[in-house]
From TrEMBL:
Pathway: Amino-acid degradation; L-threonine degradation via propanoate pathway; propanoate from L-threonine: step 1/4. Catalyzes the anaerobic formation of alpha-ketobutyrate and ammonia from threonine in a two-step reaction. The first step involved a dehydration of threonine and a production of enamine intermediates (aminocrotonate), which tautomerizes to its imine form (iminobutyrate). Both intermediates are unstable and short-lived. The second step is the nonenzymatic hydrolysis of the enamine/imine intermediates to form 2-ketobutyrate and free ammonia. In the low water environment of the cell, the second step is accelerated by RidA. Keywords: Allosteric enzyme, Lyase, Nucleotide-binding, Pyridoxal phosphate. Transmembrane segments: none annotated. In the native structure, TdcB is in a dimeric form, whereas in the TdcB-AMP complex, it exists in a tetrameric form (dimer of dimers). It catalyses: L-threonine = 2-oxobutanoate + NH4(+). This is L-threonine dehydratase catabolic TdcB. InterPro entries: Ser/Thr_Dehydratase, Ser/Thr_deHydtase_PyrdxlP-BS, Thr_deHydtase_catblc, TrpB-like_PALP, TrpB-like_PALP_sf. Its EC number is 4.3.1.19. The gene is tdcB. Belongs to the serine/threonine dehydratase family.
């Protein structure tokens, strides 16, 4: 059995983070989904991080990281690279703490996300055609201008901040059997897994990624870090082709399984969450529901108490319209 105290992030780090992030972060609802419960034969709950500040769990990690910077680091200002949720988490945290922030985004970033990030008070720089180009620019700019860089996931304080979700789950459902977690770079699942397994090592922690891009799943299966990126995914918030160093170490040692879902399965989950549970989610936020609906986690769900983390709700309204139209057309053709 893995010694949890030897991992990059520990329960002590997460409990410390809980005291920090509760200054501003919402304790998000944990609600039972009667639709998913009836469909699976399990007792299925949804952890609604789409209702967190900025519409995503990312606020937790960003706030925990930035709040613990030294006064000298804060005075230099912070910089981050993100096409969406991490950007808004860093921007709002900086506004709340009175720190100057710069967010580097790809040139093709959705205008709504650019506007939202600027609305939280950050300076937005559009650099690079792809995220990796933007990230390289961001890291170089931070070094050249002596600005504090805030990583999106591969950082112990960021991971600890995300792990506070695990503590909240246990506060409301201490006898949970399975927790399903969307995965990109691995910050969320790392923190949540440590929080849960520190309380009860028998809780199953299952990660879910898109078939089109799943660096963490490919690495988990290979037991070493590998690259995987076949195509774009509607779960763009989890489009990470190569996992973090620290996050992979945690996932490799204590996560129980990783499963993959198709683009069609993610779209169906977005539609069903809107139609049956009245919850608006982005693609990444629908990953775990997609796995449930597709029957890919049946062994962890049937006759179990299950929490499915809905990680974010920052979806382009045009994308929702496309998904709804797709299913309406399909229904018309069937009739």
């Amino acid at each position: 059995m893995t010694n949890l105290a030897s991992l990059p992030v520990t329960i002590k780090d997460i409990k410390k983070a809980q005291n920090i992030v509760k200054q501003y972060a919402r304790e998000t609802p944990l609600i039972q989904s009667m639709f998913l419960t009836a469909k699976t034969g399990g007792e299925v709950y949804l952890k609604l991080e789409n209702m967190q500040l900025t519409g995503s769990f990312k606020f937790r990690g960003a706030f925990n990281k930035i709040a613990q910077l030294s006064e000298e680091e804060k005075a230099r200002g912070v910089i981050a690279c993100s096409a969406g949720n991490h950007a808004q988490g860093v921007a709002l945290t900086s506004k709340l703490l009175g720190i100057k922030s710069i967010i580097v985004m790809p040139k093709g970033a959705p205008q709504a996300k650019v506007d939202a990030t600027r609305g939280y008070g950050a300076e937005v720089m559009l650099e690079g055609e792809q995220f990796d180009d933007s990230k390289a620019f961001c890291e170089a700019y931070a070094k050249e201008n002596n600005i504090t860089y805030i990583p999106p996931y591969d950082d112990t304080e960021v991971m600890a901040g995300q792990g506070t979700i695990g503590l909240e789950i246990l506060d409301h459902l201490w006898n949970v059997d399975t927790v399903l977690v969307p995965v990109g770079g691995g910050g969320l699942i790392s923190g949540v897994a440590v929080a849960l397994k520190s309380f009860n090592p028998n809780i199953k922690v299952i990660g879910v990624q898109a078939e089109n891009c799943h660096g963490m799943t490919a690495s988990f299966r290979a037991r070493k870090k590998v690259y995987h990126d076949e195509a774009p995914t509607i779960a763009d918030g989890c489009h990470v082709a190569y996992p973090g160093e620290l996050t992979f170490e945690v996932v490799n040692q204590i996560v129980d399984n990783m499963v993959l879902v198709s683009e069609a399965e993610i779209e169906l989950a977005i539609k069903d969450l809107i139609q049956r549970t009245k919850i608006v989610v982005e693609g990444a936020g629908a990953l775990t529901t997609a796995a449930i609906l597709a029957g890919k986690v049946d062994e962890y769900v049937k006759d179990k108490k299950v929490v499915s983390i809905v990680s974010g709700g920052n979806v382009d309204l045009a994308r929702i319209e496309d998904i709804v139209d797709h299913f309406l057309i399909a229904n018309d053709e069937e009739q």
